[in-house]
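User: Second chain of the day. Same drill as before.
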Amino acid sequence: MGQIEWAMWANEQALASGLILITGGIVATAGQFTQWYFGAYSIVAGVFVCLLEYPRGKRKKGSTMERCGQKYMTKVVKLFGPLTRNYYVRAFLHLGLSVPAGFLLATILGTACLAFSSAIYLLAATRGEQWTPIEPKPKERPQVGATIKQPPTNPPPRPPAEARKKPSEEEEVATGVPSGPQENPIPVTDEVV
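Assistant: Same format as last time:
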């Protein structure tokens, strides 16, 4: 059985917690809570976490489904180099971002989710995982002669390939059976009364 890639779980958890932080921050700011500035902080922190976590990392084995529009954010995340590639940095960054949002009831769920994703990132980092971008595969150009095929000569429906093989004239002479249409030995007349 294969090993679990913890970074994939942490990525999904962190993206969801960023959206939860934004939602809780909007509720706290729009509701004019007594400590509404923690709600404004949660909005900014949630947007930052979502932008950081939107591009998925490439899996070690198998294929990874790229998110819609991920290639644009991947370029931005790659610019920061080891700061975004190293999961130790992400674990402590998410833990640090979650602390101020924990002082407000509307954002405490986002805080708990972000702290949990921080723990998963720490586990992924101790297992030796790191973020690698999903690179587009170079498209192979097909050979011109190999892709051109002759169109079918028989109209559909076509018999199977074995039945389509026509015997050669030499085989007809050897077997004495003509391959053309057969003649009916009994004369057929059509009488209409």
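The chain is about 55% helix and 0% strand.

User: Great, on to the next one.
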